[in-house]
Amino acid sequence: MEVRAKKALGQHFLKDENIALQIAESLTGLTPHVLEIGPGMGVLTKYLYNRENIDFHAIEIDTESVEYLHAHYPSLHVIEGDFLALDLSTLFAEPFAVIGNFPYNISSQILFKVFDNRNCILEVVGMFQKEVAERVAAKPGSKTYGILSVLLSAFYNIEYLFTVHEHVFNPPPKVKSAVIRLQRNDVTSLECDEKLFVQVVKTGFNQRRKTLRNALRQLNMPLDAVPETLLGLRAEQLSVSDFIEITNSLS
Fold first, then answer.
1. Which residue has the higher pLDDT, 15 or 193?
2. What Cα–Cα distance (Å) separates residue 177 from each residue in 5, 112, 151, 153, 166?
3. pLDDT exceeds 60 at position 148
4. pTM of the full predicted structure?
């Protein structure tokens, strides 16, 4: 049976079920509550469905796939709908984990939703386009380091687990894939105005070739209190703590 991996320009099917098993086994059990996004015909699902002591739900937007899941996994709680539109606060009574072969055309949106719901999502394990996975796991100073790198690493420990090559899909996609894991860290809140923090991070990276002195002018806020050592750097050179310091200087 093939694992579906939805792409922006069509569908590619994973021929190697060992990849599905590896993804399922990458969940560390931080919570017994698990949500699978986009299970399709359920090949990843089957490695989670019969696990003991797991409260397992799935959300799928495709009606045909929902019917298949109801038929083959009768006790699975399947939500027919769009994850991006789902009110996650109503899903489980306690924090939960998210897993899936995520639709690549909306994978960044999924991660932004994870960030917005960081207090109820303890863990994320998923397959992404390799470039997205590398961006999320990137460290300061890397050319792939970006908005999601900063926002997610502020609240999650991020691991790049393994690369998935094109030849295991049918038809082979034009890009490689990768599986990453995010685990909630001990940070409950940042020591700054978190809305302004997000704004500063996005503004800095939206003009990543410019120094922070030039990029942050868009905010129309006085930069006098921001340390010169930080204003002279580009966004990709700054750590989470640097962005927190800039945020506090602005506010």
1. 193
2. 10, 19, 22, 21, 7
3. yes
4. 0.90
